[in-house]
Write a structure and sequence with these properties.
Chains A, B: Pathway: Amino-acid degradation; L-alanine degradation via transaminase pathway; pyruvate from L-alanine: step 1/1. Chains A, B: Its cofactor is pyridoxal 5'-phosphate. Chains A, B: Homodimer. Chains A, B: It catalyses: L-alanine + 2-oxoglutarate = pyruvate + L-glutamate. Two copies of one chain form a homodimer. Chain A is an alpha/beta fold. Chain A has two domains: 21-68 and 368-487, Alpha-Beta Complex (Aspartate Aminotransferase, domain 1), CATH 3.90.1150; 116-355, 3-Layer(aba) Sandwich (Aspartate Aminotransferase, domain 2). The first copy, chain A, is built from 18 helices and 14 strands. In chain A, α10 (245-258) links the parallel β5 (226-233) and β6 (261-265). The longest helix of chain A is centred in the last third of the chain and has 27 residues, at 365-391. Chains A and B meet through α1, α2, α4, α7 and α8 of A and α1, α2, α4, α7 and α8 of B.
Chain lengths: 492, 492
Amino acid sequence: SASYRRNMFLKKTLTMDTLNPQVKAVEYAVRGPIVIKAGEIEKYLEEGGTKPFSEVIKANIGDAHAMGQQPITFLRQVVALCTFPELMDSPSFPEDAKWRARRILQGCGGHSLGSYSASPGVECIRKDIAAYIEQRDEGVPSDWENIYLTTGASDGIMTILRLLVSGKDSSRTGVMIPIPQYPLYSAAISEMDAVQVNYYLDEDNCWALDINELYRAYQAAKLHCQPKVICIINPGNPTGQVQSKKCIEEVLHFAYEENLFVMSDEVYQDNVYTPDCQFHSFKKVLYEMGPEYFNSVELASFHSTSKGYTGECGFRGGYMEVINMDPEVKAQLVKLLSVRLCPPLAGQAAMDVIVNPPQPDEHSYKQFHQEKSSVLGALADKAKLTEQILNAVPGIKCNPVQGAMYAFPRIFIPPKAVEEAKALGMQPDMFYCLRLLEETGICVVPGSGFGQKDGTYHFRMTILPSIEKLKVLLGKVRDFHISFLKEYSALE
Amino acid sequence: SASYRRNMFLKKTLTMDTLNPQVKAVEYAVRGPIVIKAGEIEKYLEEGGTKPFSEVIKANIGDAHAMGQQPITFLRQVVALCTFPELMDSPSFPEDAKWRARRILQGCGGHSLGSYSASPGVECIRKDIAAYIEQRDEGVPSDWENIYLTTGASDGIMTILRLLVSGKDSSRTGVMIPIPQYPLYSAAISEMDAVQVNYYLDEDNCWALDINELYRAYQAAKLHCQPKVICIINPGNPTGQVQSKKCIEEVLHFAYEENLFVMSDEVYQDNVYTPDCQFHSFKKVLYEMGPEYFNSVELASFHSTSKGYTGECGFRGGYMEVINMDPEVKAQLVKLLSVRLCPPLAGQAAMDVIVNPPQPDEHSYKQFHQEKSSVLGALADKAKLTEQILNAVPGIKCNPVQGAMYAFPRIFIPPKAVEEAKALGMQPDMFYCLRLLEETGICVVPGSGFGQKDGTYHFRMTILPSIEKLKVLLGKVRDFHISFLKEYSALE
């Protein structure tokens, strides 16, 4: 009987043995074991448990609002007006927010945020994005039909990789990524069963991208796979460097020569803090290299509502601009996007505000500008402070945080601690970060989750806590690190 | 030189030849060629072009607000309050909306909708969903830790399939789906390179699911693949049937016997129109079959903000409940979800309102209830009307629209028209629908996009247009069909 058969072979359909092995291979450190542990400690404290600290400080993820950053008023006004259009009659909402909301709603089916948009996004928002890009890039043309709204940048990155990574012979498609990298890339590569081709950023040179290292990685990879795409994160995550124009030129020349698709993750384009650094978009640099390059290199660049000065992660807004894509492939891209119907409309509306902010002659300009400057100014201060305090700790070395939202300091872990970690079957920096969490309540992510040169150890921390909390955090890191070194007898 | 090499082999990196063939294989009729054509005609009319009609009526997609359905006020109030919490001070928002918004925000990092939530969703919303399911299923227990918020139901369905469909030997994983089906399923199967195992619904019996057909399909599939999962859509899309309790029992018994994972797509659970039909959740039926079943069959069921009486497609809200999943696999599921960070927060908030609507003692109850009844009452009227008018046309036969939002009438296409279509390299029902579009401006989707028995032809139309517009639409379909039959000499 069925019940007899069932009992004989009592086994689930979906087990660790039958699970898609590519899912098993995925790692995502930013929300990995250490973050799960942090959540458990938080619960334990809430329930009255005691620890040597009263609070867990989560510096593991670029989640600005969770760390107390306030939303930009104008952005929220526009989204609220779109959500509940009866507010159009309310005198407490400014006209400049109202006309933006009206315009967005006119682009929506039934004038409602509840309709599906076209799969690439609401047409007027795509046009606003193209206009923004043209202005940002000082006149380099942008065609709105090359703009695709996305569900955060991650969604766009996964979609483009999905086109490039062939199923059947996927184990032969090479995807070049920086090391250290944001682990979305390695996770997507695992999920799609592509070959991860590492190129190492130069820690001794402020995490700059070294073109010789690109060639080395490419040549080595060609022996066992077909590298088809190069991913760049600029400003860097987790490394915080801002790429020079010269370096971008070199990367683009390399991609042109070797016929690689270029994916440039530019979600931190508004997060540049060091006065002698400037954000250069890959597209603008490509344009300036001349039509031979600008009309041929296939480039997808990504932006998001989650970072910058807005930090609207929860809206899952973003876009990608794709140039030089084969028109037939473009039709396939649209088809693939259409299966998931459309990105969330509130996120699309939020994206529209970012690319179409209040202008100097508009009512909301002053407040918007103050809020924006205040967020970016505070981030610049915290970037500097983080670098300074960390570099004053013996056994910690931190490159300048030129941009983005993270410090990625190198930490010296004494050989005895390395041994102890290995005996526990743990990466040494995981061991370090777990101890840091257990003893101080500070949650940072081990460098091994992002990749690093063998024998070097790092952690990633965000610079998002308030300046007061950040000082507490950095002080605790310093004290912990010194006592950790002492414990393992690396300081006399 | 590089430039020379480039010119010699002037070829893009990403072409139709190098594109991931699994992407190429994806089809998604709901936004397919006929819908693209409809968009072109719309543009043409806007620009002053003339056609035998003045307006394109899009009945191709379940996009309620685009067809004029009004949002539920209370839902939008709660989401607007979450988006712009300064509205908490506004006397024009009711207290019951405010306390819900406050409660949601308390579950968000920094009390902001702009924070990432935990990857499975905001905890209090997961709890509200579990409470809703328990109430819906008359006491059958629901554990909030089995609830995962999703980006629309599609996202959840893709995620569960991703776990089940193994990469390397994916060509061996069988996924059983109904025919006709909602093409998300076939698209996902193509993208993941699984084997589509068709079981045919019984058109002569109101599209009921016939258990013997399930066994037939399963046995046939076992000869060339390993069927691991069965998908059911109830109420049916595109077919509109509501499954009987007995039929659900049979499916669950079959899954239990053959050790299949069950995916039950229940996004139309609130859309039941025929008085003698009732929605039974797969989970409740499983419970009533006894602990032997309830504690073993692996079941994922899906819901959404996009359908029901809210029709909030643009919010991309949804959830899945997953029971009897192996705990280790569950950890893998959470890891996979975490790579995409979290579902959009506005969609999560919208989902919360659906599962936690105003109660009889609350201020907003009356208006909420009126709006809900009005939407569902109109849909029931339109379901009836559609069936009646279509069945009065010679050569069209339409099963009762018991639930969901679509009619899927069978259309007789005369042999001469079939020949003409084939000469054009076109499916006969595509030929029919294109003619319908060109001559009347009505956009419906050919049955071939959903699957149908060989030699039968259908189209799917939504019942979402207003009753006035629906009458116009149905009248035009009738006139077109009669003249189509005449043209191809099927009527004397």
